[in-house]
Specification:
The chain contains 13 helices and 13 strands. With 371 residues, it is of the alpha+beta class. It has two domains: 105 residues, Malate/L-lactate/L-sulpholactate dehydrogenase, four-helix barrel (Hypothetical Oxidoreductase Yiak, Chain: A, domain 1, Orthogonal Bundle), CATH 1.10.1530.10; 194 residues, Ribosomal Protein S8, Chain: A, domain 1 (2-Layer Sandwich).
């Protein structure tokens, strides 16, 4: 894989300029740009900077819309439903999460349903947002208009990648952040692999005959050679993780985040593309009768970390550890981008007549010390 190292702060500014030129408000452009770079810093490149190529295309075609407000459909003290009007998902989901946090702080718990959000990005970021406020949370997400995944036992697309996130706050930001797609790999990871990034496992997809494959062509078909590959163009599918268990969880996401929110599921009816989100927020202080929650949670997490490593593992990690370590490393040494993605960003910048000094974006490769 041929990559360049990019300064993350400079990249945020470039993405911000692209989004502003594409019609986003100052606030939403800043939020989406920050979210994309943060996702890549955490090692979730599938939901990170690579997405700007698709967002630029979608904003131009109207598949997602800039400057859409969050509209309340139902608003009770602890249950809210919002409509995003096909707007910028990261901006809408952050605002919906902020409202859910405020209500949970006031009432002890809150449930937020969001429909018709463009693409909300890395789901774990909203669990992190809740943890920073001291709240535990559970998020279920679906992607309407995005049949990409074959359920267990099938060779046909019936499900979106349907991610789940759970956050439990820990002392000093040492939070438990579980975030995963219910497909074996996220669609964005297939996109990264298809554009010169890390290869997929050999069983990540099935082809049209139901045979296992790791070739992104099964998902994108001939569009894999295009500037923005289309994951709906192939005749294969992603697979669910965990066989029947992961498949069942994916179906639950479709029903909870798709049907229950009003976003739509990936059944026989074709819905407009958009994320549905069902988020549950809990204030641990309201349940913490013996005042031992923080102590018990920290003690257990440290117990797990101190477990004897299996052969081939240096140490035991819990969800959130790898992301924090990766972010520290990439912020210090530079954010790696494939040449394909970097060149795509520069092409967009030039097409929009945005002035950017490429040299200001690049970081020199770290030099190995001479022993």
């Amino acid at each position: 894989m041929s990559t360049v190292l990019v300064d993350p702060d400079a990249l945020v500014q470039v993405l911000n300029k692209i989004l502003r030129a594409d019609g986003c408000t100052q606030e939403e452009a800043a939020e989406v740009a920050r979210h994309l770079v943060d996702a890549s810093l955490c090692g979730h490149d599938s939901h990170g900077v690579i997405r700007i190529l698709r967002y630029h295309l979608w904003l131009g075609t109207g598949q997602i819309k800039a400057a859409q407000p969050l509209r309340a459909v139902i608003d009770t003290p602890t249950l809210m439903q919002f409509d995003g009007g096909d707007g910028m998902g990261q901006w809408l989901a952050r605002e919906a999460t902020s409202i859910g946090i405020a209500r949970a702080k006031e009432h002890g718990t809150a449930i937020v349903a969001l429909r018709r959000a463009g693409h909300i990005g890395r789901l774990g970021s909203y669990a992190e947002q809740a943890c920073r406020a001291g709240l535990a949370s559970i998020q279920f997400c679906n992607v309407a208009g995005s049949r990409l995944v074959a359920p267990f036992g099938a060779a046909q697309r019936c499900i979106s990648t349907a991610p789940v996130a759970i956050g439990v706050p820990g002392a000093g930001g040492n939070d438990f952040i579980l975030d995963f797609a219910t497909s074996l790999v996220a669609e964005g990871k297939a996109l990264v692999a298809g554009t010169g990034g890390k290869s997929l496992p050999g069983d990540a997809l099935v082809d049209a005959n139901g045979e296992l494959t790791g070739d992104p062509y099964a998902l994108y078909g001939d569009t894999l050679a295009a500037a923005v590959p289309n994951p709906r163009a192939g005749d294969g599918a992603l697979r669910t993780m965990g066989d029947h268990k992961g498949s069942g969880l994916a179906l639950a996401c479709e029903m909870l985040a798709g049907a229950l929110t009003g976003n739509g599921t990936n059944g026989a009816t074709d819905h407009r593309f958009g994320n549905g989100l069902l988020a549950i927020f809990i204030d641990p202080a309201r349940l913490d009768d013996p005042q031992g929650f923080a102590r018990e949670a920290a003690s257990y997490i440290n117990y797990v970390r101190d477990a004897r490593p299996a052969r081939g593992a240096d140490r035991v990690l819990v969800p959130g550890d790898k992301e924090r370590a990766t972010a520290r490393d990439r912020r210090t040494n530079g954010l790696p981008l494939s040449n394909t993605v970097f060149d795509g960003i520069i092409e967009i910048v030039r097409s929009l007549s945005i002035t950017v000094n490429e040299a200001d974006l690049l970081r020199p490769a770290p030099v190995d010390p001479i022993s």
